[in-house]
Amino acid sequence: MNAPAVLIVEDEPDLRQLYALTLAKVGTAVDQASDVAHARQCLQAQRYSVLIIDMRLPDGSGLELLQELARAGRPERAIVVTAYGSADNAVQALKAGAFDYLTKPVSPARLRQAVVAALQASAAPSPTPALAAPDPSHNDALQQLVGDSEAMQAVRATVQRVARTMAPVLISGESGTGKELIARALHACSHRASGPFVAVNCGAIPPDLLESELFGHKRGAFTGASADRVGLFQAAHGGTLFLDEVADLPLPMQVKLLRALQERAVRPVGAVAEEPVDVRIVSATHKALAQLVQAGQFRHDLYYRLNVIPIHAPALREHPDDLPAIAVAILQRLAQRERLPAPPRLTEAALARLRRHPFPGNVRELENLLERALALHPGPTLDAEALALDAAAHGDAEIPADHDDAPLTRAELEARLQRNRWNQSRTARELGWTLAKLRYWMQRLGLAA
What does the alpha-carbon distance between residue 27 and residue 25 come to, in Å, rounded to a whole number? Predict the structure, then answer.
């Protein structure tokens, strides 16, 4: 009597029966509906834990039923089933509030995997209200998204609204704005919080090693492969895979990533069969990905799959009123790390000086600045003199005093960046600069994405 209830909405009797038999192994009670009208009757009679909804039904679409559930505030987790290749339908369903989607033909193992994940999400505690104080017992990562500005409230609200689905999320924003913190908050607020969070910087892995790093390899697959190796997809099984700087993926790797997203399976290098993986994908980039799609540098179909739920990480200059609170949070974290009895206090003069600074490096630059000040000026307070903005204004003490004279023209620097596929670390090494110096001149010349 206490078995979780699942409603299958499918017009093909054979498929309904197959789904029901498959879910019997999960230990669920199953009801069946052949069309939208029958499904409405079932939903009026009782509540369910999970719904499995076909997108094409004789008297309407599964999307309509999904939208009705959202308007009514129903708690059920909906898994939509779509025909092979109907990516548009899948994306529309996820945006409408579906927990996950499956592509026909649906294998029994894939169906059970999706339903178990939905049951786990359904049984998880409800998220805290969007603007309420988060529960520190499981939302520590959410608390790190500091600020009461409208921009930061919008970020936290979106995180809490979409964390408990399988919908892919694309986080955009300048370097140093805390995109990984947002990704970690998504993971912490989800039913996958007890699973692994695996972060990978796509621009930091050599292109010839990317496939092996992401999907793993078998022993003897290539020279040096002396043993089987688990890839990052497999390492993130049951949790979240964070693809940072996803725009840096080479086009051939984008094709393989798209297949992995579509099939929910990966094939290690040297393997003959694919391995199913259960991961939630969160991506991030500081580049204008839509422009790269138009330029043919990023696949449109992959962009469409990754950008189901967009979240913008605001630059520090977009919410300057949050700067004091962010600085206090950083100092508290640094004091804990250094085991100080209490974090130092910023004087009004120090705060005024920080407010006047443009912070092209955003929160990361602010953290570097405060860490330097804390190391060089120990004590209970940090005054304006402790903030060496002249030397650290752009995170790079090596920038010469006459830095108003650009060492390269904008066109020259842009050409070098394009030649290196906008890989900043590689470009900085080529120029003989530090990474901070490169980012400074990108900002000055209007090349910061």
Answer: 5
Burial annotation 271-307 (CB, 10 A radius, 16+ → b, else e):
eeeebebbbbbbbbbbbebeebbeeebbbeebbbbbb
Closest CA to 230 of 207, 196, 179: 196
Q: Does 131 reside within a domain?
A: no
Cis peptide before 13 (omega within 30 of 0): no
Residue 101 falls within a domain, yes or no? yes
Residues 157 and 275 grouped into a single domain: yes
Whether the Cβ atoms of residue 172 and residue 284 lie closer than 8 Å to each other: yes
**Can you give the CATH number for the domain in which 92 is found?**
3.40.50.2300
Residue 59, number of CB atoms within 10 A of its CB? 12
Residue 194 tokens read as: 């007890």
Residue keyed to tokens 């987790």: 77
Report if residue 93 sits inside a domain: yes
Q: For residue 268, is the peptide bond before it cis, meaning its omega torsion is within 30 degrees of 0? A: no
Spatial contact of 97 and 165, defined as CB atoms under 8 Å apart: yes
32-85 confidence digits (pLDDT tens): 999 999 999 999 999 999 999 998 899 988 889 999 998 898 889 999 988 755
Whether residue 157 is found in the same domain as residue 41:
no
Name the strand (E) or helix (H) holding 100. strand 100-103
**What are phi and psi for residue 151, nearest 5 degrees?**
-65, -45
Domain that holds residue 216: 140-312
Contact criterion met (CB below 8 Å) for 103 and 90: yes
How many domains does the structure of the chain reveal? 4
175 and 304 inside one domain? yes
The answer to whether residue 84 is domain-embedded is yes
Ramachandran bin of 224, using left for φ above 0, alpha for ψ from -120 to 50, beta for the remaining angles:
left
Q: CATH number of the domain at 189, please.
A: 3.40.50.300
DSSP H helices in 166-280: 179-188, 210-215, 232-235, 251-263
Nearest to 331 by CA among 132, 139, 146, 142: 146
Q: What is the pLDDT of residues 111-167, one digit of tens each?
A: 988 898 888 887 765 444 333 333 443 457 778 899 999 999 999 999 988 888 888
For 384-403, what is the HEC assignment?
Answer: HHHCCHHHHCCCCCCCCCCC
> Does residue 442 share a domain with residue 308?
no
What's 375's domain CATH number? 1.10.8.60
Nearest to 167 by CA among 236, 103, 76, 98: 98
